[in-house]
Amino acid sequence: MKTTAVYFSPTGNTKKSVDAMARALDADYQAVDLTVAQGEDGQEFSVQMQFSGEDFVIFGMPVYGGRLPALAAKRLSGLYGEQTPCVLVVTYGNRHYDDALVELQDLCEAQGFVVKGAAALVGRHTYGEIQMDRPDTADLEADAAFVRKAVSGDGLHAPIPGNRPYQKQPMEKGQFAPLTSNACTGCGLCRKSCPAGAIGPDFQVDADRCISCFRCIRICPAGAKNMDTEGYRSF
Fold this sequence. Notes:
two-stranded parallel sheet, Alpha-Beta Plaits, single chain, alpha/beta, 7 helices, Rossmann fold, FMN binding
C-alpha cells in the first residue's frame, strides 16, 4: 500500500496533521501540496493524478467560514481514485467546522475515493492568537493513532456530521486583505507563495483575489505584511 498525503495548507497547520498521519503509515509517503498552483505567469494550473485501489490517500483541508476554501475544493478536481481508500481531515480554529467535513466527503467520493475515516482537528486559528500551540505533540500522536485505526477498519460506522445542502456559501474571497508596510524588502517570497496569486509585482495584495489565509503574514521575513487596521482589530 502506497500512502499519499494531499493537502491545502496556507499556514501549515493542516500539513502538520496530515503529515503525522501519513508518516504513521508509510515513512516514504508521497506529498501532494495543492496550496500554490500557479505558474510564474500567475496562471492557475491543474494537478492531475490517478490513484488505484492499492493506494491510500489522506486528504487535508482547512475550514474557512464553515466550508472548504473554494480555491482548495477546485484543486481537488484533478485527483481521481478507483475505489481508493482514504481518510478525510479538516482543521479549524476551535469555533466549528460546520459542513466542511461532509463537503470534503462529497468531493472525494465523487472522484472515486472510498472514505475509511474522517476527522475534524483543532489547529491555530488564522485570525488572532487563538490555539497558538495547536496541533501540539499530543495532537499529532492522536492523529497517528487515528489513521492506524482507520486504515485497519472496515469504513465509517456513523454518518459524517454536516448538512446537505450546505448551510453556508463557500468563501470565494476573504474578508481581510493584508497590508504591506515600508519594511518590505521586495524579496518576492509572499508573491510566489500566495495560494490565490493575489500579490502583484509591487507586492501589494489584491483584495478582490485574496482569500485571507494570512500565509504572507506568517512567512514574511521582514514582518512587512500585517493587518494593522481598525476593522481587523475590532473583529
